[in-house]
Amino acid sequence: MKIVKAKPSEYDNIQRFLEDVFGHAFNYFPLFYPKAWKKEYTGFKNIFLMKDKDGITALVRIFPLATVQNGININLAGIGGVSTAYRCRGRGYMTELLNLSFAEMKRQKFPLSVLGGDRHRYGNFGYENGGRVADAVISARSLQKAGIKPVGAERYKGHDKNNLTEMIKAYNARAYRTKRSADEFDEAFRRLGIAVYSAGKGNSFGYIAVNATETREQGGVKKVLEFAGNSETILRILAHLSGRFGFPAYSLSFPGFCEISEKMLALSSEWNEGSGMMIKIISLKDTLEQFSKQKDFLFPEGEEITFTLRNGESAVMNKRGGNVTVNNGRGKNELVLSETEMVRLLFGVSFRAPCGTNLRIVQILKQFLPFNLYLDWLDWI
How far apart are CA 270 and CA 135, in angstroms? Predict the structure, then answer.
């Protein structure tokens, strides 16, 4: 049994392997996730294969994600395509591949890794639920009662550079976003199962991307996969789609409750807040250092905290003369946590220090934690 990095010549074999493992249709991945799995976008150097004489037995892929999180640049290592041939399950192949991928993430200097998956499956590898996402449901009835008038929305069909430019501009004005090229926007907006509508000009411009599959959605609520721009225009597009297609309600996701506009909150028939992903800390020091650069970071002057991963690295954060620094090593007010406990502390939906934590340390931590991490639906693999 050997582990190798994938080659472009193996692209078709990889697709057939993934389709067989997941039970998907032919060419499912490049059709549903073109900006990640079309051959020209496939990062073969980040695909790790385990092989035997009969071919591929297991696969893991790292997906680099350049993001902006509340005004700061954070490069994330997404994990996807986690798959083992049915005939080879239970042999520990995936454990070996995942551990190799973590070493590669560290080599490439990613501070964090993210994925969507089962907590019990990935918790053993240091992943834990984290990041905030608030889902608000806006009904056609509430739009009508509020007097929101439909707007003649235009559907994006590709090859419209002016419209695409406006959508990119609106998206890039958001505090939480993924960095995409114009081609990546175009691929995402034209992918199978997505419909994108826009309206307005200048400051009144807005767009939404909705799930356009024929599968009936839970409770008849139409999922809005992404939106950006003027809030009033977005609501008017929803009213337009409601009248045209009879959608009774829409679910919109935000990077936490505080990101929901007052207008949308007033129209919401319900909302809930929860974790948006699973997170693993690759470099504790780099994570603390990068998130300390956020403009609303409120570490108290003259204080010091030592964050230590049990059986792992330690990093000291302090503030002197208005400057926050993070260094490797140990210092005062040490907090020793497991990997999953550290994720819950740094990226929980709300502040949660482990029971028994020194009260003085808790008082300091509550002033700047938790951090938030958010990805749109269109950026998941």
Answer: 8
C-alpha dihedral sign at 115, 120, 122, 127: positive
Contacts of 98 (CB under 8 A, 6+ apart): 60, 79, 82, 125
Strand 112-115 relative to strand 72-84: parallel, antiparallel, unpaired? Answer: parallel
Q: Give the Cα separation of 261 and 227 in Å (integer).
A: 13
Query: Tens-digit pLDDT profile for the chain (381 aa)?
Result: 789 999 999 999 999 999 999 999 999 999 999 999 999 999 999 999 999 988 999 999 999 999 999 989 999 999 999 999 988 888 888 999 999 999 999 999 999 999 988 888 899 999 999 999 999 999 999 999 999 999 999 999 887 888 999 999 999 999 999 999 999 999 999 988 899 999 999 999 999 999 887 555 666 789 999 999 999 999 999 999 999 998 899 999 999 998 999 999 999 999 999 998 999 999 999 999 999 998 889 999 999 999 999 999 999 999 999 999 999 999 999 999 999 999 999 999 999 998 889 999 999 999 999 999 999 988 887
- The conformational region for residue 185 under phi > 0 = left, psi -120 to 50 = alpha, else beta, is alpha
For residue 278, which of 348, 330, 327 has the smallest C-alpha distance?
348
Note whether 94 and 122 are within 8 A (CB): no
Q: What's the chain's length in residues?
A: 381
SS3 (DSSP) at 246: coil
| Amino acid (1-letter code) at residue 41 | Y
Half-sphere exposure at residue 322, Cβ-oriented, CA atoms within 13 angstroms: 0
- CB 176 within 8 Å of CB 68: yes
Q: Which domains does the chain have, with CATH numbers?
A: 2-115 (3.40.630.30), 133-276 (3.40.630.30), 283-365 (3.30.1050)
How far is it, in rounded angstroms, from Cα 257 to Cα 239? Answer: 23
Q: Report the C-alpha gap between 287 and 111 in whole angstroms.
A: 5
Give dist(CA 229, CA 200) in Å, integer: 10
The helix/strand/coil state of 94 is: helix
Three-class DSSP category at 185:
helix
Q: How far apart are CA 366 and CA 300, in angstroms?
A: 10
Token digits for 216?
């009936």
